[in-house]
Amino acid sequence: MPVMKFKALLLGTLLLSLMLTGQALFAAVPSHDKPAGTVESPGTDYWRNVRQRPAELVTLQKEGKRGEVRTQVRGIDTAVLINEKGEQWRQYRVEMLIPGAMRLLGGVVAVLVILYLLFGARAKAPEDSGNRLFRFTGYERTMHWVMAGAFLFLGLTGLILLFGRPLLIPLLGKETFSTIATTSKQLHDLAGPLFLVAVLLFMLRFWKRNLFQKHDVKWLLTAGGMMGGAHPKAGFFNMGEKLLFWSVVLFGLAIALSGLMLLFPNFVQQRVPLEGAHLAHTLGAVALLAAVSGHIYMAFAVKGTLPGMTTGYVELNWARSHHSEWAKQKEETGDVISREELERDIGTPSTTVEKGA
Amino acid sequence: MARMKFYCDAERCIECNACITACKNENEVPWGVNRRRVVTINDGEPGERSLSVACMHCSDAPCAAVCPVDCFYTTDDGVVLHDKDICIGCGYCFYACPFGAPQFPQDGAFGTRGKMDKCTFCAGGPEPDGSPEEHRKYGSNRLAEGKLPICAEMCSTKALLAGDAAVVSDIYRDRIIKRGASVLDWGVSYENASLRASKGMSGKSSLKR
């Protein structure tokens, strides 16, 4: 029994002392979770506020309740001590954009090349009915090729600047690549505004024909006839072309307008809007390059498509299967021209030579 | 091998802007370019502090990471320099730099950027040391002459320190020990903060009185 009593006493004392010391420890720890015995330097908080600029401090500074940050040196963002967005922008460009864009664009091009070799190269145009439909006017074709040329040129020079460091410098060396990069940058800057004008004119010309219609949903669900066999209904433009048109408008304008910001650093000079412009410019460009790669693939893989944009005329059977509603309408109004008639009017390269000889 | 660093002691900087003037004079910096600037925080308030900022010659420099033409290099002394013959004036280093160090002279219409210019730690560029080419593009190469950057050498309050990181941090550590870390705490003066007299110091210590 005395042993039990002793044990209970010991346990009680232990518990009591634990409670007391626990309380003492708790009291010693300051309200913010710092180890006991740490003396907080007010200087630490001061400089932490300068570096991290919490929102409430910025508001206080704007309202003039706290002293302002000033400098006598005139220039861009000179009164900003730490550029906090710079690190996020570096991570975006170096760790996300360059490897991501390389994987995406490389992957898209590889898949399209494989698809072309498997299916596109073997695809045949529908049987020639001997009749033609007029599809694109000379102005429309010129607009298309001016925009396409400007876009591909801007894409090439832009990709040189984006991937040059990992891909071209190891091959060419820094000096040679610097010359190429300078040329690319200058020409990119010059061709940019041309693209903006082309996109605007192109949009004005084609937006009405690219409004979505009811039958476009079915086109989308069957992926343009790739799933389900028969070609779904389509008007002057099918859903694939409409989606490409609106991504050209959306991304194209985003690229062109952010490009203007980057092009004229005398209008917008601060780093944060320029970093945002670079973000929009690169994301838009990569997305549009991927979409346009698909467009170029379709132009070559679907036989009978390309003449519409080169000569302006398409074959009737091709139009019946790919743009059924438009072909029906054209046939009803009697806008069908026979091949012979067409060759007499505009001449194909081969007949022109024969006539000359 | 030495690793060169700047350190600006905010307890000492009096915002006289002489470092900027000296830098411009020594390096013949073009118009519109400031390799160094003094920023004052809480201007006109108790606790106002000033700092002289330029390129901090980062060990893992973000400017070098984002440069599309890879024109940056780090010297054996840990100084981050760039090659103006390779630079294309894209401005990416300016977006990425935390300290706003890269500067661009206007070159042509609509504010087009010229070749980037920044603090070289008075160490010139890739051209041969002391050559007229190097001086024209990058300014002085004082490091090659065994001297430190002019901004720090002439700083009247010795707020701006430049040199081997180990030496700079020793000097700063000594200052901290002498004046105490908590001088920003309003009410704790330099006198009260001084905990003990150090050798060769007179008139500054509270124990001395």
Query: What is the number of helices of chain B?
Result: 7
- Cα distance, first to last residue of chain A? 132 Å
Mean pLDDT of chain A: 83
Output the CATH class name of chain A. Mainly Alpha
Number of strands of chain A: 4
Low-confidence stretches of chain B: 185-189, 193-199, 201-209
Envelope shape of chain A: elongated
CATH architectural designation of chain A:
Up-down Bundle
Task: Describe, in plain words, how this protein is organized in 3D.
The complex is a heterodimer of chains A (357) and B (209). Chain A is 69% helix and 4% strand. Chain A has 357 residues and is mainly alpha-helical. Chain A has a single domain, classed as Up-down Bundle (Fumarate Reductase Cytochrome B subunit). Chain A has a three-stranded antiparallel beta sheet with strand order 3-2-4. In chain A, helix 4 packs parallel to helix 9, helix 5 (138-172) runs antiparallel to helix 6 (174-206) and helix 11 (316-322) packs across helix 12. The longest helix of chain B has 15 residues, at 165-179. Chain B has helices at residues 18-27, 62-66, 92-96, 132-138, 150-153, 165-179, 190-193; strands at residues 4-8, 37-43, 49-53, 72-74, 80-82, 160-164. In chain B, the strands form three sheets. A two-stranded antiparallel ribbon of chain B has the order 1-6. A two-stranded antiparallel sheet of chain B has the order 2-3. The interface between A and B is large, with 52 and 54 residues.
